[in-house]
Amino acid sequence: MQLRFVKLICVFAVFAGSGSATAEVTVSQSNDPGVILSAELTDLLGLEKNIFSAIAPAQISRLKKIPVVRKLWGKKPSFSYSLDYLTNLPEARGDKHWQCLSEALYFEARGETVKGQFAVAEVILNRVDSSRYPSSVCGVINQGTGRKFQCQFTYTCDGRSEVVSEQPIWKQVGKVARLMLDGKARELTQGATHYHTKAVNPHWSRKFPRTATIGAHHFYRMPTRTASNG
């Protein structure tokens, strides 16, 4: 644009110099450098406006979607006690208490349904909340460990070496443990602190109120203490 302006000035000078000293040179509006520059600037701004008109809606739309994408990223599907639900969750990770709970679910309930695994996790966490048991997940699970067949969870004191050999099940119970430690509502066992398989009939089960039967397990809540029984 600047070069064109210079050329126009030069042309104007040539025409001005070629006439007599008294000749009047009238520059028409179409040849007026100021008018031409103004017109070209208008054209340029118009072109810019057209470009932004084409781009801006797409840009604005994309920018508007960014918070939505961030909000939905990692969103969990609606909860259900199903394998499909757990499969759609990312692989779980956690600290030593997550590890302890995952191991307990694996060795105590890996053959159970998903609901049954959640129920066993509820029992462990209900014990953590009870003043009658250790106040940590690992403490509850390992209570009595080292005294053969006197522990709370058989796999910790049966004298056998426990090895995780089924990785798909391990990942599954790991997700159950993660959900429960993250605050999943305990809605299956009504506060149960004990359970046993249907294949056995321990003596304490006749004194404890049964709260649920899920899969292969019966679940019980510890009797309420009264003034008469201490």
Give a short synopsis of this structure:
Helices cover 49% and strands 6% of the residues. The protein has helices spanning 2-18, 33-72, 83-87, 96-109, 114-129, 137-141, 167-181; strands at residues 194-197, 210-214, 217-220.
Features:
mainly alpha, 2 domains, 230 residues, Arc Repressor Mutant, subunit A, disordered C terminus, single chain
Number of strands: 3
How many individual helices?
A: 7
CATH topology descriptor of the largest domain: Arc Repressor Mutant, subunit A
Taking all Cα atoms into account, the compactness measure Rg is 40 Å
CATH level-four homologous superfamily name of the largest domain: Cell wall hydrolase SleB, domain 1
CATH class of the largest domain: Mainly Alpha
Q: Which band does the percent of strand residues land in?
A: 5-15%
Biggest pleated sheet: 3 strands, antiparallel
Structure description:
There is one protein chain. This protein is mostly helical and 230 residues long. It has two domains: 2-72; 83-220, Cell wall hydrolase SleB, domain 1 (Arc Repressor Mutant, subunit A, Orthogonal Bundle). The chain contains seven helices and three strands; from the N terminus they run αααααααβββ. A three-stranded antiparallel sheet has the order 1-3-2, covered by helices on one side. Strand 2 and strand 3 form a beta hairpin. Helix 4 packs across helix 5 and helix 5 (114-129) packs across helix 7 (167-181).
